[in-house]
Amino acid sequence: MRSFLRTAVVATASSATTALLFLACATQSSQPLSAPTSPPAATATSAEAPIAAASPAMVASASASPSVTGNGLQVAVAQAQAAQPAPGTGTQNPAVGVYQQNAQSVVNITSLAVLPSFGFGQQQQQTQPQGIGSGFLIDTDGRIVTNDHVVQDATQLAVTLSDKTTVAAQLLGRDADNDLAVIKIDPSATDQDGRSIADRIKPVTLGDSDQVTIGETAIAIGSPLGLAQTVTEGIVSARRSPFENSPVPGAQIADILGGAIQTDAAINPGNSGGPLFNASGQVIGVNSSILSQSGGNEGVGFSIPINVVKRVVPELIQNGHYRHPQLGVSTIALSDLSPQAKQQLGFQPNQQGLLVEQVTAGAQQAGIQAGTRRVPLGNQTILIGGDVIVAIDGQPVATGGDLRGWIENNKHPGDTATVSVLRNNTRQDVQVTLSERPADQSPPG
Fold first, then answer.
1. Which end of the chain is more exposed for a tag (fewer CB within 10 A), N or C?
2. Which domains does the chain have, with CATH numbers?
């Protein structure tokens, strides 16, 4: 049984068998938060924001900074650069230096819901904590990156800094498909002693996730189970492609379009949205989810690669949402067909690619051919006779994840892609102008 949970509830499993859970590591409310929204009062409190009551077994799982110029908002997310030398020498664990260097940059995020209440015969409003998550500062203007599922159901947000000062935050933008959101705190906000928090806003340094190697040190800082400023350490266990499937039936590893960095650093509910660092103190990922049979950390955590953040966040800040490109095809991967099915359809046993069933948008306009005949295949009916996509911009594609991942990570709406297809056993290239995928449409390709 596969469950993808984005709430802070108690994990449940069958008494007969352990349920496989792919879990988002944060808690949520049931009230929507639009972007942008008016924040609560900016005056801070010194006490850490309260946490929604839940069992400990709860499931959830810079060279340049954004700036405002006379020409409008211009964002240049930090490129990978040499981090400051970590304090300490000799054989000191690298996590010590990474924490000392970055602790002030990591925040606790509490999602709040405004609920109706009654008192003295009158209806009133009451603010109630709904869940917790983590985030990290990316510039001195107070912008914070976190997961979309940390903020998606909140009506108000509160951010607790490393010194336990709590201030209101507002949502700037969110993108569910990449599970990313940007919120902002006001640098001019004050603590309970009337002091500005501006000197406590310290941005992280963003690394280059394309340079991440399997086996290198990975260090997570966040608020697991509400325990702020918690540090865990492990390694980068693997790199996962977009929509990669788990060997366990029914479990999809990376629902996130940009793929995932897999780590065995302990990630638990409340870690969502927090940074994953390398040993040099650069952020290489945003902790997002875990794959678990028990509902808790089992050493299989996933982080959104930081290069996805560099691509998506500037648009979230500027527009409040991210424009996703689409090719406009609905396909079936030949690798999903049995050798007998391939033979039945006239394909070689080792043929790879995507059989096009339907076309829309740019693919249709460019002349990519859809299927024309319905053929029963096992317990389903598929459309055959269409093109078989074998590459995009010279990159071989064997799965829908290959196609979606390349388009998502390398293209924007309005860009042109070279799609290589097999048509009547002849390979040819088709130039397709990518369109913007509608917000309410899932990403088929």
1. N
2. 2-12+21-81+101-319 (2.40.10.120), 325-436 (2.30.42.10)
